[in-house]
Inverse folding.
């Protein structure tokens, strides 16, 4: 789990104190990667200096516990300050040799300049891949869905020429909720929503490193749903019109092997589901009977209520958590 912990002038460092305590408490049950996160502006607005100073304080005081630095350049007042946000975060992450995570270009405004170009430019200029083996994650990036195909291909080419270890993370549950808000009293008003087309970006001709994730549960960004990755993969079938067996396997990768690679737990690669001799034992076991049975009328025989025997069946109809166990051997 990559846990985003906000630091700002309102909460100070209280959230990170709680995150560190929880990480230790659950260390035998869950691997937690703490991302110290600037959700508020750090180069514009009334509290920019205070927010930035608190981020620096958290990075210094919790240097042994923090694995990732994250910011949200799109909350800055204009494009110029968004670039300053990006430059500060890249240099701060490099200085501390930690992963980088931007929530970026969260809009559907064709008139608004996409800051992804600035991220690629600054990362290339600082020679990120030659100075660190840490990864870079870009979340949301809904503005990219408006890029014409030639521009998107040019972006991919620039990233690959520079050897940048960038992964794009689709966050469809928050994207669907946060975008397309209704105009009061306007039942016919267009309500545009957008989320990265993750399966398309993974395949030819783009071949990008991508995954899907759950951004928030139970707050103003996403008050609905659960934190269950399998249910997110299942939702992806409808969101991406991904109804084939190959699609189901790709969606499963997007919440498992590809997600692990995106946050730096394994080297960047294809992320397929193939299991080979000598691989580390980190698997999800799905019980055949899902923990639930039903009686055959008149026979007294119990049969599984729903049996899944393939990846696509798991994605199309995820078993309940009572029918799963995580296996992780040291």
């Amino acid at each position: 789990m990559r846990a985003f912990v906000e630091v700002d002038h309102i909460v100070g460092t209280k959230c990170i104190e709680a995150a560190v305590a929880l990480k230790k408490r659950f260390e035998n049950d869950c691997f937690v990667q703490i991302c110290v996160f600037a959700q508020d502006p750090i180069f514009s607005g009334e509290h920019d200096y205070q927010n930035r100073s608190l981020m620096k304080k958290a990075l210094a005081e919790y240097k042994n516990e923090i694995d990732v630095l994250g910011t949200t350049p799109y909350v800055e007042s204009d494009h110029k300050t968004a670039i300053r946000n990006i430059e500060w975060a890249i240099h701060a992450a490099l200085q501390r040799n930690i992963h980088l995570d931007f929530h970026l270009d969260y809009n559907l405004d064709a008139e608004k300049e996409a800051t992804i170009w600035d991220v690629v430019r600054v990362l290339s200029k600082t020679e990120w891949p030659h100075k660190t083996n840490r990864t870079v994650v870009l979340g949301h990036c809904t503005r990219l869905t408006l890029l014409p195909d030639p521009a998107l291909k040019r972006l991919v080419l620039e990233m690959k020429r520079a050897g940048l270890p960038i992964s794009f993370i689709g966050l469809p549950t928050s994207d669907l909720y946060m975008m397309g808000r209704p105009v009061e009293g306007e039942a016919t008003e267009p309500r545009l929503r957008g989320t990265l087309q993750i399966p398309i970006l993974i395949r030819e001709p783009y071949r990008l490193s991508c995954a899907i994730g759950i951004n928030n549960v139970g707050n103003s960004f996403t008050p609905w749903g659960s934190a269950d990755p399998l249910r997110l993969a299942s939702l992806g079938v409808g969101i991406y019109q991904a109804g084939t067996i190959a699609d189901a396997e790709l969606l499963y990768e997007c919440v498992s092997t590809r997600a692990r690679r995106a946050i730096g737990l394994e080297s960047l690669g294809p992320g397929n589901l193939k299991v080979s001799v000598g691989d580390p034992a980190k698997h999800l076991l799905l019980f055949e009977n899902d923990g639930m049975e039903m009686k055959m009328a008149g026979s007294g025989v119990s049969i599984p209520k729903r049996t899944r025997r393939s990846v696509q069946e798991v994605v199309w109809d995820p078993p309940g958590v009572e029918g799963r166990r995580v296996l992780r051997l040291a």
